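COURSE: Structural Biology Practicum
ASSIGNMENT: Worksheet 4, Part C
STUDENT ID: 0417
INSTRUCTIONS: Below are two proteins. For each, the amino acid sequence is given first, followed by its structure token string. Answer the questions at the end about the second protein only.

PROTEIN I
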Amino acid sequence: MILNPAMLDDNLRHKFLIGSIVPRPIAWVSSMSTTGVLNLAPFSFFTIAASHPMTLLFCPQIPSGSGIPKDTLLNIKELPEFVINLTNEDTVIPMNLSATDLPRNVSEFEWAKVTAAPSETIRVPRVAEAPISFECKLQRIVTISDAPGGGSVVFGEVQMIHIRDDLYQENGRISLELLKPIARLAGSSYARVTDTFNLDRVPPPPTK
């Protein structure tokens, strides 16, 4: 089968992507409006951009239904800083609650019943219950499309990291067993990281 994305409607394109690009880590992004209203929302279009300087990226989409940009993106354009909190099995319920579409003047922190903890370098608070949080200052926004089904790539340069003490091991390693990360699949499905395997990288052949 060969598919031409130009021949698929927005809904089918979206379903194909979220069903094939799996599993996806979840950025639980806290942001703040200029009037001080806190926002919290999960984004599974999320990954690492670079380690020097430490930079993360996530991609808020323009909903096909409303065509209105996410509050997170609007907030970051007004106040160019945010926190990427990581989710796990312990925080999956409040994370899911924070995905509810609420009016912009209502805080998802209160709706999801999570604690806003002060950050060290930025004004936007982190989620105290998150196992790891990255304080970020906006590096740049790359707009893919302003149309419904489009979106942007938001790059954030990490200023400070908060990590639960028991997770951090020697040489910068993180305990996967204690972190208990979750990942997004298609629809309402999620994955746990409970089955892993090791595979060493093969060195290049010797030069003659």
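PROTEIN II
(use this one for the questions)
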Amino acid sequence: MLLIIFIFNLNLDNKIIEQMDKLSSKNLDLIMKPLEELTTFPTYATIFYSLSLFGKEKEEKLVKLAIVSFFSSSFLTWGIKGIVNRKRPNKEFTNRFNSSFPSGHISNYYSVAHLFAKEYPKYSIYLYSFGLLLGFSRIYLKKHYFTDVIGGIIIGITISEFIYKNKKYLNLIF
């Protein structure tokens, strides 16, 4: 946590936001704005439901792990947001649990994507690359700072790794 506070004070986040302002264009807006909708709960629910319907036993188990990982990441991120209470770069702020640090979209995405990358390594480059694009979009749209995205990645991968390493215990529950 002290490292994050130190990074906040380096003014790195504001410099990156300034650079994003220089990149801003209508064409890039057309790409970045729809990405936000791809990382919402209904999208995940649809993917999980489809995999559980059409997948084999391996996919069904993976979906169960992904659901646990997704909700664990969501709750941890929500709690950290409430503690840190950082204002968003676009100044949108409804309450402390909707604050900027860490990025919930990114922590949720990586909590699921990392599980899938562990189980299907040949797709990992696509999963992680798409995650980086999502992170870029969060900064570009001024929903988050760079350190918010990095925090989200760390949380998502950490939760996912913990879930994956303990999957034998979770499989006993399901």
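ANSWER KEY EXCERPT:
Q1: DSSP finds nine helices and no strands in the chain.
Q2: The mean pLDDT is 83.
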